[in-house]
């Protein structure tokens, strides 16, 4: 089981991010929102993932960065839930949609619920 979150698994392409927001579908599990879109890939199926915490909701950079670290870590630990039966490549964007701080346990519970919803849909 691959539990890495390396640079090639991160969503950095401006073109892909724009496509994600224009054509993407979304799922919610408060306080997380997942926007995803299938992408063309010559390689084996994989995920390109990004995380976001809006400045409008979480005011200080310290808190935003902490939440983003939590989101990346929880995704890294639980991405096997979607990669085990993935047949096409996807771009993911996780967006934090709450004003309150969150614990690792609650973040993990929400992320697992989101990833399971995604697996059911695809």
TrEMBL record:
EC number of the protein: 3.1.26.5
Single Gene Ontology BP annotation: tRNA 5'-leader removal
Matches recorded under PROSITE patterns: RIBONUCLEASE_P
This protein's GO CC annotations: ribonuclease P complex
Catalysed transformations (reactions): Endonucleolytic cleavage of RNA, removing 5'-extranucleotides from tRNA precursor
Top-level enzyme category: hydrolase
Pfam families, sorted: Ribonuclease_P (PF00825)
Bilayer-crossing regions: none
Superkingdom of origin organism: Bacteria
GO molecular function, one term: tRNA binding
UniProt keyword terms in alphabetical order: Endonuclease, Hydrolase, Nuclease, RNA-binding, tRNA processing
Record function comment: RNaseP catalyzes the removal of the 5'-leader sequence from pre-tRNA to produce the mature 5'-terminus. It can also cleave other RNA substrates such as 4.5S RNA. The protein component plays an auxiliary but essential role in vivo by binding to the 5'-leader sequence and broadening the substrate specificity of the ribozyme.
Similarity section: Belongs to the RnpA family.
Quaternary structure annotation from Swiss-Prot or TrEMBL: Consists of a catalytic RNA component (M1 or rnpB) and a protein subunit.
Protein name in UniProt: Ribonuclease P protein component
Species, as recorded: Christiangramia oceanisediminis
Organism phylogeny: Bacteria, Pseudomonadati, Bacteroidota, Flavobacteriia, Flavobacteriales
GN (gene name): rnpA
């Amino acid at each position: 089981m691959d539990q890495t979150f390396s640079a090639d698994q991160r969503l950095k392409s401006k073109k892909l991010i724009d496509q994600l927001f224009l054509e993407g579908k979304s799922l919610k599990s408060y306080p997380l929102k997942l926007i995803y879109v299938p992408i063309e890939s010559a390689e084996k199926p994989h995920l390109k993932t990004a995380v976001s915490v809006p400045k409008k909701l979480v005011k200080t950079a310290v808190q935003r960065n902490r939440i983003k670290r939590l989101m990346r870590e929880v995704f890294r630990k639980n991405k096997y839930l979607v990669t085990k039966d993935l047949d096409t490549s996807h771009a993911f964007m996780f967006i934090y949609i709450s004003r309150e701080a969150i614990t690792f346990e609650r973040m993990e519970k929400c992320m697992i619920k989101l990833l399971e919803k995604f697996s059911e849909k695809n």
